[in-house]
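Entry type: protein chain
Record version: 2
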Amino acid sequence: MLALALSGPEAGEARAGSLCAIDDREREVCLEAPARRIAALSPGATELVYAAGAGEKVVAVVAFSDYPPEARDVPSVGSHTRMDLETLVTLNPDLVIGWMTGNPPEQLETIEALGIPVFYIEPRDFEGVSSALERLALLADTREQGDRVAAEFRNGMAALAERYADAEPISVFYQVWDEPLMTINDEHLIGKVLTLCGGVNVFGELSRLVPRIDDESVLAADPEAILAGGMGEENRGWLTHWQQYPSLTAVERDNLYFVPPSLIQRPTPRLLEGSRLFCEQLERARAKR
């Protein structure tokens, strides 16, 4: 069922009748036939598989796999941090889409030891999202749709980059979590969105992708704008927290902006929609100078 190698052909090159693609751990994963029963072990992976045209082949997901809506009807095998492997195996997947830093490594290793192919994904830049779509479509034999959606995303992000290439820099704090208070650095995919929109991430130079900080650090950085998600697609409570600090420039100018987390925290084609929203919000903040 599965062949793995540490080096080999580029993604998409067939080997002796197999379908082969390089995953984000730089391993070559080869299937003897197109995937027909796919388990997606993160909400982002679920979105990517559906966007690549293989949604009808998804037989297992994890908690919070809520987009597209039909994904909610697929059997769940637990959370991304702890899967019910017995249930997963009974669903007989012929391809598992793993999350490099989100799924427990020991569980993914157990899945592979059972002879089930695991394809690791974790896009770290915009091209990585398009590439993931293309590679998943290759393994599922849905290349027409996968390649089309990948090109649309690639072109859309390029258009945004061109539009905001000369935007005036504006200092930004993006809140990715509340307790503990967490943000992102410039190497994170969300950090790259901020940069594309002309934002200057006030915590961009920190070494961790998702650093833990505190209120005092935000007060010292004094960003012109604060962008945040929340516990749900409509929950703006995290922004309310900052209103207790009226001396913050972002608060004084009413530059507290909500972003639905699924649009910006998942490396999927909807990141284009989230990026457009980011850029529009920063444009409003610039207008208040």
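Comment: Residues 1-14 have pLDDT under 50 and may be disordered.
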